[in-house]
Amino acid sequence: MSGSKVLILAGEASGDLHAASLIKALRKRSPHLDITCVGGEKMKAAGATVLVPSSQLSVVGLFEVFHHVRPIASAFIKVRRWMKKTRPDIVILVDFPEFNLMMASYAKSLGLKVFYYISPQVWAWRKRRVKKIKRCVDKMAVILPFEEEFFKEYGIDATFVGHPLLDSITVDKIQDRPLKESIGIGRGERLVCLLPGSRKGEIERHFPIMAEAASIMEDRFENLRFLVALNSGTGADAKRFVRNVASGVSANIHTVEAKTHEAIKASDICIAASGTVTLESAIIGTPVIVMYKVNPLSYALGKKLIQVKWVSLVNLIAEKELVPELLQNEASPERIASNTLEILNDPVRQSQIRSGFDQVVSRLGTPGASKRAAGLIMEFMSKAP
Predict the structure, then answer these.
(1) 253-257 sheet: strands from edge to edge
(2) I need a labelling partner for 185 at 20 to 30 A (CA). Which of 111, 229, 267, 323 fits?
(3) What is the DSSP letter of 306?
(4) pTM surpassing 0.85?
């Protein structure tokens, strides 16, 4: 299998992180794999050749996609041409269903093997996609405990491998003290972590609301400081936007980059845009308020399609509203501030949330998701077409 050609398609920051771990696990099994990707800096650092940067494709919402048609179409054409010319031994999809399911369909038309790692959340919304997955995907490695049974009910070959965050987060090794010292957190001061999202559009929608909520909280709670955690892929425009908004609201809003886990651990509570980061907060053990806003038309259409009670992974895995979810119109500065302060003022509630987090983490399986997924991929590749 030495020298086999592999195409990995990932989008956004979490996909880049988990795909990079998968690449490392694959190379341990077969060092001479020729890996090409749609991905980010972490996948590149892991040794993949970047065909299209995933930053070109990362958008959320049905209507937001229309503003990014040109780069998405360009990437689609480029990847199709590469697939047709190179005919890789396997196409590995990592999350990112809007783009990846189109690619899966084309890959199958070429007779290529298709493997899905970190599946689309079709159990939550747009369940009709299951039929397309069954047509276009040969094998799945899923990371949430209930997904294996869900896909098997539809006749799809799926295996639960555990959640890759258990490999990337070792709580005892996260050094938060240097971060606290760098921003001058004093004795008796409380810290709130603001996590507006990884995409520019998310940051522009969410951070002004979070900043206004911070201003409200400052007036009601003494010795409160705020920390905005941005990931390493955040663009210069988005960082400038955060600085400008923060400077107009409070001198107590600090910004850090590429230190999300340290920021979460250092904080007493997080206010986070719904996404993987809510699960990161649970693993680290910091209570979180979940919020999210999209284009109103996207929300109206999406609400009709959503088939679960909650949107955050924490609540979905807990199977109850363990942490508050404030969506769309409910994601107002006043509601966010009041929910945050309610938890900050209630040690019993904090303890209940942390206890619930322990149960959530216990359901995520054991460390080694990337290794198990790599094993499934190598086994699948070795089988005759």
Answers:
(1) 253-257, 224-230, 190-195, 269-273, 288-292, 325-327
(2) 323
(3) B
(4) yes
Mean pLDDT of the chain: 91
Listed by start position, the domains of the chain span 5-164+368-382, 171-362
Distance in angstroms (rounded) separating the CA atoms of residues 240 and 245: 9
Determine the Cα–Cα distance for residues 15 and 21; give it in Å rounded to an integer.
10
Q: Which of 287, 267, 275 is nearest to 174 (CA)?
A: 267
Q: How far apart are CA 7 and CA 253, in angstroms?
A: 42
Helix, strand, coil shares of the chain, percent, nearest 5, are 50, 15, 30
Tens of pLDDT, residue by residue over 23-69, are 999 999 999 999 999 999 999 999 999 999 987 776 444 444 445 67
Question: Which amino acid type is present at position 289?
Answer: I
Domain 171-362 has CATH 2.40.70.10: no
Q: Using the 8-state DSSP alphabet, how is residue 365 labeled?
A: -
The answer on pLDDT for 300 being more than 80 is no
CB-based contact 291:274 (threshold 8 Å): yes
| CATH hierarchy code of domain 5-164+368-382 | 3.40.50.2000
User: Is-same-fold flag (5-164+368-382; 171-362)?
Assistant: yes
